[in-house]
Amino acid sequence: MSHTFPIRVYYEDTDLAGIVYYANYLKFIERGRTEWVRHLGVDQGRLREEEGIVFAVRRVEADYLRPARFDDDLTVETRAEAVTGARIVLYQAVTRHGEALFQATVTLVCLTDDGHAARIPAEIRRLLGGALH
């Protein structure tokens, strides 16, 4: 199951040429991931308060395909590829009217407040696992 989230490119997102600065795609997909887990019913604030864990990016493999420009309407697509006891692998893409501009495979893990690795709680795995493909 794929989730989509709309983004508009603002002037602050661009460089002098009016092209989206490369690091801002990471911000765009972060927003998409946040809305994806919210849509699935995961309250990240409650997870931190009650379980003492947070999601953290472990790895990003990104491909920049075409530039986005000032005032473009973009869509961030997020799709779960794998959910295990210790990690979540996502496919994320930024598109403009269906044209792929940026694609990434993102691996997430859970960390405790002191920065140690933690298993993903079973209820969270169930919610996220239900969103596979």
List keywords for this structure.
6 strands; 133 residues; Thiol Ester Dehydrase, Chain A; alpha+beta; single chain; 24% helix; six-stranded antiparallel beta sheet
Explain what the structure shows.
The chain has a single domain, classed as Hotdog Thioesterase (Thiol Ester Dehydrase, Chain A). It has three helices and six strands. It has helices at 24-39, 44-51, 122-129; strands at 2-8, 53-64, 73-83, 88-96, 99-112, 117-118. Strands 1, 2, 3, 4, 5 and 6 form a six-stranded antiparallel β-sheet that branches.
Brief sketch in words of this structure:
This protein is an alpha+beta fold. Helix content is 24%, strand content 41%.
Main beta sheet, described?
6 strands, antiparallel
Gap from first CA to last CA: 5 Å
> Structural class of the secondary elements?
alpha+beta
CATH class: Alpha Beta
| CATH fold title | Thiol Ester Dehydrase, Chain A
Rounded radius of gyration (Å): 15 Å
How many distinct beta strands? 6
What general form does the structure show? Answer: elongated
Model regions low in confidence, pLDDT < 50 over at least 5 residues:
none
Assembly state: single chain
Helix content percent band: 10-25%
Element order: H for helix, E for strand:
EHHEEEEEH
Number of H/I helices: 3
CATH superfamily: Hotdog Thioesterase
Q: What count of structural domains?
A: 1
CATH architecture heading: Roll
Strand percentage: 35-45%
Q: Give the averaged pLDDT, no decimals.
A: 93
